[in-house]
Amino acid sequence: MKLLPINILLTLAICRLTSSETVGPTLMPLTSASALPTNSKRVHLTGKNKVENVELLNPANLSLECIWTGNQNKQPNITGFWRKGGEEIQDSRVPVAPENQQYRLQRVFNIVSEEHLGNYTCVFENEAELDFILAVPRIGEKREKPIVSYVGDFVVLTCKMEETKPVPRTWNWFKINGTDKEQLFEAQRYDITVIGHKTKLKVKDVSEADSGVYHCAAVYNISTSTSKLHLKVITIWEPLKPFLGILVEVVILVTVILIYERSHSKKKEAEANGLNADPKNTQPQGEDEEAEERTSVRQRKT
Amino acid sequence: MPPAPADVLGPKPVDGGWGWMVVLGAHISIGFAYSTPKALSIFFKPIKEDLGASYSEIAWISSIMLAVMYAGGPVSSVLVRRFGSRPVVMVGGLMCGVSMVTASFGSSIVYLYLCIGIIGGWGLCFNLNASLTIISKYFLAKRPLANGLAMAGSPVFLCFLAPVNQYLLGHFGWRGSLLILGGMMLNCCVAGAVMRPVARHSAPPKEVDQSNNTKSKGSLLKKAKTFVDLSSFKDPGFIIYLVGNVMFIFGAYAPIVFLSAYAVSRGVEEYSAAYLLSVMGFVDMFVRPLTGLVANSKWVRPRIQYLFSFAMVFNGTVHLLCPLMRTYPLLVAYAVFFGVGFGMVFALIFECLMDLMGNQRFPSAVGLVTIIECFPMLLGPPAAGLLVDIFDDYKYLFFMCGGVITTGGLFLFVMNVYNYNRLEKANRGRDTAQNHNTVENQEQASSSEAQVELMNTAQPEPEPEPTEETR
């Protein structure tokens, strides 16, 4: 699936087959919206389904065009219509006849505000569908794991919009308290920095109350894109508990091993001294096994 | 000359019993040594965000740790020869623990370089060197197996540390995780505690080495020379081994570093690409002890250097074929074979050095080997990365690594044909001169004392020596 470059097309381009200019309730009269810039998107569809993501920053007149290559049943007349959010747009039904073995549906939509974003589908009845998902650029990096910080320390929360995507107009930070969303501003404990595609929220002298969910919002003219961050603040005692546990385990094991060894070697030495009256046996052998001692003694004798 | 080998080699290795506990200790110790620098990379992103450093600055932490771990070899050798393995490993474990705990309070990248990189690196260096040495003291007949089992610690601990680190990171952040990791590394002290000394080390080695020096308290320089023991370089077998190993290490790590990136460039999604490394590590875990077992068999053991060269050539060939692996199933197959080759080489890498140098010279030899291997280890991945940058294609990286490793393996194979012949001639010469002055012969023929002993064990000599009976 390749994104075609967006060309600037005059909305009053010639289109014999479609009459999408007939005004429906969601479509504003084109003449009054001529102050808005115009974008267009043309997508080819082979097969039954396709999904196309369309990123929008600013209000615009968006011309969406679907070109379907048809299938084995080369039907002479097909009905085409548009859906928004799953519901059929009124008065959007038109008959579509094949042109060079292609069926074409086109419509211009006036995208001004957040409600106009969403899922637009061009439907070739009972044959094929193409979804256009209109949205603001998404913040790609999803941080599923919580950011952990310690009481009294500072923490930096970062949100980044991909460099390839357009720069947001501005960034906002919010903290979620239950169902409330509280916006955070540059204050004593909060430092907000915005550098193009990145934004950083530095929370100083954190306490356990600062734990929770934070939202960073990339603001575009048409809408806002948000991402969640989870902050967890713990005391030093939390990691200290397992650490001390392991420390105790290590000390116990080392002590046990050394004590076992000492008692084991004392036993061996007592046995060796008892069995063999030869003074050479008491030469520094460390903790050798008995057989070894006798072996090496014999070797030294020869 | 039955008494001489005993004096030179020390008491007969146990080859079992408590030795297996020592292998367990070495397994833990070596496991931490090799897996910690790699497992730390999981913490890099949060550390980078908190301290505001660049990715390459953070990556230096691991590089410094690895570099110190290898470069500190000779110092570790000296300490092991002086004090024995146990105190060295326990101090090493303590240093590792301290390094991580202090690092958890860090607020600058240089502080982390010092704590994790330098102190941690030294701790790991002590662990590695001393663990290998004690295996050579405890095992002879079953030494390849013991080595294989001990070296398996590296993949086992990596498999274990990676998810544990992820879990710790999610619950405690990087600071708490480093604290707890430091605690876990203190278990190296436990590993050290099981490394019971085999015999007093201060007496025999000094007597042998200073047989040429009249005074026991020579000048400091003479003492240093005796301790560092550059005499390893006089051994052709050692030089051959060194050259082959340098070539191997140069090409060994780059494919690991770039495997995920290569897979992603071939259209594999990131999670599956990371999974390839897990596959390799998993296979590695089992291949190492298996290789040790194979190397221990009576057919392979006397010609173990050939198995080592074969393993290297195999590893190199796998890399050379990697650019042909264009689909995900083929890449998984590559990862499996990579794991096999890598595991085989690493199971044998120190066993072969022990085989060449024998019990007494191994500690110094391994120190020299690691400090020299420091350079190809640090230069390999960046050089490979440079190839990728210049040609914008990963295949040249695999060609280079595969080519270098295969050449190293072939070099080892050819040169070992020569070396084995040389040793056989020396052994024959030594046997006939047994009845004459043995002290002089010690120096010359000591190049494969272990081999001689082995051959005596494998094919009992007709001469009625008491040592043969007791064996």
Give the helix level of chain A as a range of percent.
10-25%
Approximate strand percentage of chain A: 35-45%
Question: What's the end-to-end separation of chain A, in Å?
Answer: 86 Å
What gyration radius of chain A follows from the Cα positions, in whole Å? 37 Å
Largest sheet of chain B: none
Low-confidence stretches of chain B: 1-9, 201-216, 443-447, 457-471
* Number of separate domains of chain B: 2
CATH class of the largest domain in chain B: Mainly Alpha
Rg of chain B, rounded, reads: 23 Å
Oligomer: heterodimer
Q: Topology as H/E string of chain B?
A: HHHHHHHHHHHHHHHHHHHHH
SSE class of chain B: mainly alpha
Strand percentage of chain B: under 5%
Principal-axis shape of chain A = elongated
Please tell me the overall pLDDT of chain B. 84
Tell me the overall shape of chain B.
Answer: globular
Please tally the β strands of chain A and state the result.
Answer: 17
Low-confidence stretches of chain A: 1-33, 281-302
- SSE order of chain A: EEEEEEEEEEEEEEEEEHH
What is the name of the CATH topology of the largest domain in chain B? Growth Hormone, Chain: A
Biased composition (Acidic residues) (chain B): 462-471
GO molecular function, one term (chain B): monocarboxylic acid transmembrane transporter activity
GO cellular component, one term (chain B): basolateral plasma membrane
Protein name (chain B): Monocarboxylate transporter 2-like
Chain-wise SSE layout:
The complex is a heterodimer of chains A (302) and B (471).
Chain A: E1 38-45, E2 49-55, E3 60-68, E4 78-84, E5 87-88, E6 94-96, E7 103-111, E8 118-124, E9 128-135, E10 147-150, E11 155-160, E12 170-177, E13 180-184, E14 190-195, E15 198-203, E16 212-219, E17 224-234, H1 237-275, H2 290-301
Parallel strand pairs in A: 1-3, 2-9, 10-17
Antiparallel strand pairs in A: 3-7, 4-5, 4-6, 4-8, 8-9, 11-15, 12-13, 12-16, 14-15, 16-17
Chain B: H1 3-9, H2 18-39, H3 44-51, H4 55-71, H5 73-83, H6 85-103, H7 109-138, H8 143-151, H9 153-185, H10 187-193, H11 203-209, H12 220-228, H13 236-252, H14 254-265, H15 270-296, H16 304-321, H17 328-391, H18 395-432, H19 438-445, H20 449-458, H21 466-470
